[in-house]
């Protein structure tokens, strides 16, 4: 648990958000405020809409209904300067999406030059600073294929940080990694949280959520079922759906048995 002063205004403000793909209503009325400096972990079963929510927050998906504000600017306003708002937001995905034919430094300088118009020397300086932050200065000239998955993900984080975002969104940043590589990535995220970065993190790393998150949000079926401190939501969940999800996470073998039993009965819960 972190103890820090949160900014007075919400950095991310989601109001009455709905998102449908055809007939499939994936988000069914999401209200979520994240204050400056706050770290919010989003948990929930597969298909509950976690990624779609993150993608709506930086307008990779267009909401069907509702409003999204980032840094006070309404993304859902048709007149908004969407590129300016997007520059406030860094996003890190499960897949690192580094360019394989570029060195680590080039992966970090390219978006700075293209999107922010920085010159080569300025971009290289910011790249070096951020590689140092994630502990990978010595890999500056390496190609992504020569790095471990955990190192590649730290490069992806440094690439996002080099753009100077006010908010970082993470979508299961460690779930594609071998277990022994997860810790280094979480350590970088923990450092960012301690520095006061506003973060929205979809993750199933419960230890991280407990120790680093200010709040944990549990989603199921396109709605927020619970929203509270880690102690409340993970330690003492109020809803059966949250308890069920957490017990499956903590004991997957048991969950399989449960699943088979409920298949026989023909229904869940
Ligand atoms: N581009 C798309 N087109 C159509 N359906 C989509 C699209 N993106 C997501 N969906 C559907 O929306 C639902 C929610 O998906 P989403 O990826 O947000 O879930 P999630 O909670 O992130 O799941 P996971 O834990 O598996 O990543 C799913 O039923 C999915 O099939
Ligand atoms: Mg997802």
UniProtKB/TrEMBL annotation:
Signal peptide: none annotated. It catalyses: a polar amino acid(out) + ATP + H2O = a polar amino acid(in) + ADP + phosphate + H(+). Its EC number is 7.4.2.1. PROSITE patterns: ABC_TRANSPORTER_1, ABC_TRANSPORTER_2. It is a peripheral membrane protein. SMART domains: AAA. This is ABC-type polar-amino-acid transporter. The lineage of its organism: Bacteria, Bacillati, Actinomycetota, Actinomycetes, Kitasatosporales.
